[in-house]
Amino acid sequence: MQDGVETDEQLVEEVKALRAEVKRLNEQRYFRVESSLPQVVFWTLMRGLAWGLGSVLGATILLSILVRMLGSIDFIPVLGDWAQQIIDQIEHSPAQPPAE
Q: How far apart are the C-alpha atoms of 18 and 16, rounded to whole Å?
């Protein structure tokens, strides 16, 4: 009978500790922010905008580096001509598509 009382007391202490931990976890900032639908929508929108902007900027930077590298390989006959054609095509492309 003595073992049963100890086990019950241990169980009560474990449940108290578990309640305290759940309470502490629920007070974390992440769970407070994520519990409101408008805030979730707002932060998801902001995250998507940041990802899209980063993708566009990254692609622009990589493309400009690639074009500069292509422009600097004039000393290779075949690649230099090909690179020059690409650069000319980019420079002479219309800024806006023609109106229909």
A: 5
67 and 59 in contact (C-beta within 8 Å)?
no
Please answer whether residues 58 and 38 qualify as being in contact, where contact means their C-beta atoms are separated by less than 8 angstroms. Answer: no
d(CA 28, CA 13) in angstroms, rounded, equals: 23
Q: One-letter amino acid identity for 37?
A: L
> With contact defined as beta carbons under 8 Å apart, do 58 and 52 qualify?
no
What gap in Å lies between CA 37 and CA 43, rounded to an integer? 10
User: Using one digit for the tens of pLDDT, what is the confidence trace for 1-36?
Assistant: 455 567 888 999 999 999 999 888 877 776 666 667
**Contact call for residues 25 and 31 (beta carbons, < 8 A):** yes
Token pair of 62 as six digits: 């990589």
Domain boundaries, the chain: 1-35, 36-92
Q: Mind listing the pLDDT tens digit for each residue in 37-85?
A: 888 888 889 999 999 999 999 999 999 898 888 777 666 666 677 777 8
- The reported pTM is 0.44
